[in-house]
């Protein structure tokens, strides 16, 4: 085929990418164009005989210039996890921890104190209720208990 | 599939392909773009490769080609290999947890 037609298609395509990536840092944009140009040149070199359809197919597979530009616009490169956190986050965990400690103390007071009181009250009640007649006949007999009159007398 | 989820994972797919051996750029992007489920066109993979180069996870070398211009080959760096190893460990746990929540766990 007419080689210049293929070249023109490629040039037109790269212009569209360049236009779509206009917001990109110029160095980054040229790097992207260079990568695509290399790809196209290598892919065309693989063809034994090149047709216009072949070149169009190569460009189609590269995809929409706007999508490529959007991908290239994605912020910073992926950083290894060793990167230090920004200073605004440095104080965050500490204050969170303090808040958690305060919350824990408040919860302890609000929950544990009533629970402790209930337990103590329960023990007291048990102490009263376990004043069974059997114990009356035992060593604790001298303790005056209010219960015997409320309970059925035990057969002796 | 959310674009950010696909993109974040694709970077590690590139690393995984390169872990099997050095690849010629055109071949590499063709392999990845060939799977429609990854929904990446060949062109969108070049900015991704560029990010990986700048991060130091892949490096490139030029080699003469029997046909046409010299080719740029991509290979995994040691740092890239470590990043891939870590991703593999985290990915399995992450995938299993998501499967359990989604009810897509087939086991």
Structural class of chain B: alpha+beta
Q: Which fold does the CATH topology of chain B refer to?
A: Arc Repressor Mutant, subunit A
End-to-end span of chain A in angstroms? 122 Å
Oligomer: heterodimer
Structural class of chain A: mainly alpha
Topology diagram in text:
The complex is a heterodimer of chains A (156) and B (107).
Chain A: H1 3-20, H2 26-45, H3 52-62, H4 65-72, H5 87-90, H6 92-129, H7 133-136
Chain B: H1 3-19, E1 23-24, H2 25-33, H3 45-55, E2 58-63, E3 71-76, H4 78-102
Antiparallel strand pairs in B: 1-3, 2-3
Helix pairs in contact in B: 1-4
Report what the structure shows.
The complex is a heterodimer of chains A (156) and B (107). With 156 residues, chain A is mainly α. Chain A contains seven helices and no strands. Chain A is rod-shaped. Chain B is built from four helices and three strands. Chain B is an alpha+beta fold. Chain B is elongated, with a radius of gyration of 15 Å. Chain B has a single domain, classed as Winged helix-like DNA-binding domain superfamily/Winged helix DNA-binding domain (Arc Repressor Mutant, subunit A, Orthogonal Bundle), CATH 1.10.10.10. The longest helix of chain B has 25 residues. The chains are: A mainly alpha (156), B alpha+beta (107). Chains A and B meet through helix 2 and helix 4 of A and helix 2 and helix 3 of B.
Summarize this entry quickly.
With about 160 residues, chain A is mostly helical. Chain A has two domains: about 5-70, no CATH class; about 95-150. Chain A is about 65% helix and about 0% strand.
Descriptors for this entry?
heterodimer, A: 156 residues, mainly alpha, 2 domains, 7 helices, 0% strand, rod-shaped, B: 107 residues, alpha+beta, Arc Repressor Mutant, subunit A, three-stranded antiparallel beta sheet, 4 helices, 58% helix, 13% strand, elongated
